[in-house]
Model the fold of this input.
Amino acid sequence: MTKARKSMICMVNYARKETGLSAYRVQSKLTWSANRKAQDILRCSFSHTACGRPFGYWIRKSGYLGEGGWATGENIAWGSGSLGRSRAIFIAWMKSASHRAAILSDGFSDIGAGIIKGRFEGIPGARIWVLHFGEN
Done:
């Protein structure tokens, strides 16, 4: 899934560049937290509070906030087949005002992308996507 993750980050940073914003820095702790959140969604439910955890649970567990990070955000999505690929998910996020706002926020500087593939809501091969944003 590394190629898909890189593709998503590339599209996000291209959109930022096109609007005059700086590229997000890929932050390993946010990548870790986004992957854990994707696993929770796959296991429990499609929600920012999957498995009953607050949205920022995995971000806090990663240690990102302990390094001075004070602002965080999250985009989640899922799809199967061609609708689960990075381009389709990115396009869907850009068509949603709140998801687009996170992608194009000047309040965040860091990003981590998580993706996991598995059976979700009875659909085999579904992809769960999570972007974690932060300012540190």
